[in-house]
Write a structure and sequence with these properties.
The chain is an alpha/beta fold and about 150 residues long. The protein has a single domain (about 1-115), classed as Transcription Regulator spoIIAA. Helices cover about 25% and strands about 30% of the residues. The chain is built from three helices and six strands. The protein has helices at about 35-45, 65-80, 90-100; strands spanning about 1-5, 10-20, 20-30, 50-65, 85-90, 110. It has a six-stranded mixed sheet with strand order 1-2-3-4-5-6. Strand 4, helix 2 and strand 5 form a beta-alpha-beta unit. Helix 1 (about 35-45) runs parallel beside helix 2. It is globular. The protein starts with a strand and ends in a 39-residue tail after the last strand.
């Protein structure tokens, strides 16, 4: 699926790399023009039976305020549904606005499970950077995140 926001094409792709995991990859600008379609696709995945939804934002070229607000709403919706929503970032265009607005700590960060062997678990393992402490384990109602 491709839409255009200015000069940058917007594209979403969805895959199921293993049982219980859905990965939604985003390419292009996430702004007020493209956020409605992004929201529709991700909400459908949150409403599915998969317990883990991974948003791969490494292809995002611009992250607008509307997109950040929607990510927060989608994260809350997933949490209330008993689902786990993880972000895969690592690009300045995504990390920088989240950090600048103080939103980075709100999210759970994970790795793209398509590159990890299936172990029978649906847990998405957050990557560790050298010199960082491992993330705390979730105990229920609390939220944890690795800040990059």
């Amino acid at each position: 699926m491709e839409e255009s926001s200015g000069n940058v094409p917007f594209r979403l792709s969805t895959e199921r790399p293993r049982s219980g995991v859905i990965v939604v990859s985003v390419f292009g600008d996430l702004d007020m023009v493209t956020v409605p379609r992004f929201t529709e696709v991700v909400q459908q995945r949150v409403d599915s039976s998969a317990p883990v939804i991974v948003l791969d934002l490494t292809g995002v070229t611009f992250l607008g305020v509307e997109a950040i607000k929607m990510l927060a709403q989608l994260d809350l919706r997933a949490h209330l549904s008993g689902k786990r929503l993880s972000l895969v970032t690592g690009v300045r265009t995504v990390d920088r606005p989240l950090e600048a607005l103080g939103m980075a700590a709100r999210f759970t960060y994970g790795s793209r499970p398509v590159f990890e062997p299936y172990t029978g678990s649906t847990e998405v393992v957050p990557p560790r950077r050298p010199g960082t402490t491992p993330p705390r384990q979730r105990t229920g109602g609390e939220r944890t995140a690795m800040i990059r």
